[in-house]
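Project outcomes to date are best conveyed with an example. Our students and postdoctoral researchers have been running inverse folding experiments weekly, and each run begins with a structure described purely in tokens. The record below, which covers 430 residues, was selected by the lab manager from last quarter's runs and is presented without edits.
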């Protein structure tokens, strides 16, 4: 897709409700809140504003609110990129460079161990981490761009019509080439987003390969001293759940005895708990994920626990375990997002309650429950309430030991609650 407009003459008029949200710092405008679209030709026809264009956003009185990237396919039709109206493409690309450098500089502070090998993080030797999120979309004032570092490899996702562009790829390659640790930068499209945003296929060739280095899509990275395989051509997200990095370490701090990791994916929580537990069972419905988990297990010889993997549906397995009288000292619940839309939130709450209820019934007295939600439509208060309800129904006394979120390389924006998506509660179940 090539960019078709400078954006300086395209205007989007939005409802009062949406204008109030933008003034309060929210960065999204939904399609239902657009009252008019005016292309630089002056025609008030939506189709004449090119997909991915930069448009000036104004309220009902014509007062400018800033500049946004426009999508003609997504329900989030406008993503704010500047408080200044009339920003053109060249200015946007210049700001992109500055914000990318600022995002990387922030990670050099909050995940210093991944860059310098010095310092410590929650009791874990800092030199034992070399992976982190470099760019987190709106949270870094870079809507539609995500980038993760896995050692010397950087994986990029361009998630909107305005960012899945060759000029954005060129800026990313330029800034990442400045980083001495980066040898290969590849783009990995999200198939679902590509379909929703009507994006063309991403280029197959790497965006950047350092001179003298061999381009590779596979590597081994380390977080908290635990090693993991990474394949940029397989798996979910950009390949791993780096947002749980410090929660993995916290779970290992509280875990003991016999542990169960439900929805283990590639073994993140399981392998961390295997450092301190006697036996760990990881459960996932994906055979492919468990095969990678087993390869990750082989990367970490000398773990204290005996580790085994079970391919099963989480709800069915917990039901069977409860019926068989199985008992565990530690249980981790880390399911995929149950509520991908607001409409799905009610059903998600029932799912979370059932998982937590069954887990609490299987925990030995004094056992540890680590329960997580990555549904941004379910806030921390609502999630805590559903865990409380599960405790009441299970007849268990539950003490909250820690209330956690994503690691600081996944910062949240207070005016955009959707960036506070990850919740993790660590509880003692009496």
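After processing, the design step wrote out the following sequence:
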């Amino acid at each position: 897709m090539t960019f078709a407009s400078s954006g300086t003459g395209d205007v989007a008029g939005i409802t009062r409700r949406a204008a109030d949200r933008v003034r309060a710092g929210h960065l999204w405008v939904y399609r239902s809140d657009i009252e008019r679209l005016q292309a630089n030709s002056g025609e008030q026809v939506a189709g004449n504003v090119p997909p991915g264009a930069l448009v000036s956003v104004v309220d009902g009185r014509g007062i400018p609110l800033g500049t946004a990237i426009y999508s003609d396919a997504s329900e989030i039709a406008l993503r704010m990129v500047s408080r200044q109206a009339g920003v053109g493409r060249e200015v946007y690309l210049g700001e992109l460079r500055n914000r990318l450098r600022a995002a990387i500089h922030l990670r050099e502070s909050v995940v210093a161990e991944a860059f310098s090998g010095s310092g410590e993080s929650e009791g874990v030797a800092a030199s034992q981490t070399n992976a982190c999120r470099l760019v987190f979309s709106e949270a870094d004032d870079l809507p539609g761009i995500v980038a993760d570092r896995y050692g010397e490899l950087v994986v990029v996702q361009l998630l909107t019509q305005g960012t899945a562009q060759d000029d954005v790829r060129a800026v990313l390659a330029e800034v990442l080439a400045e980083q001495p640790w980066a040898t290969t930068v590849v783009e990995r499209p999200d198939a679902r987003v590509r379909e929703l945003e009507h994006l063309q296929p991403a280029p197959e060739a790497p965006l950047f390969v350092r001179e003298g280095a061999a381009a590779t899509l596979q590597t081994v990275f380390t977080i908290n001293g635990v090693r993991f395989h990474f394949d940029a051509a397989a798996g979910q997200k950009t390949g791993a759940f780096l947002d749980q990095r410090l929660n993995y370490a916290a779970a290992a701090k509280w875990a003991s005895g016999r542990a169960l990791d439900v929805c283990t994916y590639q073994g993140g929580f399981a392998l961390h708990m295997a450092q301190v537990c006697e036996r760990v069972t990881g459960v996932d419905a994906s055979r492919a994920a468990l095969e990678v988990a087993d390869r990750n297990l082989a990367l970490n010889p000398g773990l204290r626990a005996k580790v085994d993997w079970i391919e099963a549906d989480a709800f069915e397995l917990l039901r069977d375990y409860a019926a068989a009288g199985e008992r565990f000292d530690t249980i981790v619940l880390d399911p995929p997002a149950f509520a991908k839309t607001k409409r799905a939130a009610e059903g998600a709450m029932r799912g979370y309650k059932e998982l937590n209820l069954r887990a609490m019934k299987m925990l030995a007295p004094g056992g540890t429950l680590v329960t997580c939600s990555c549904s941004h439509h379910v806030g921390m208060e609502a999630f805590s309430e559903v865990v409380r309800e599960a405790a009441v129904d299970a007849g268990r006394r539950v003490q909250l030991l820690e209330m956690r979120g994503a690691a600081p390389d996944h910062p949240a924006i207070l005016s955009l609650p959707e960036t506070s998506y990850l919740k993790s509660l660590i509880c003692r179940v009496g």
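The two ends are 57 Å apart (CA to CA). Confidence is low (pLDDT under 50) at residues 1-7, 42-46, 118-126. The training component of this project remains on track.
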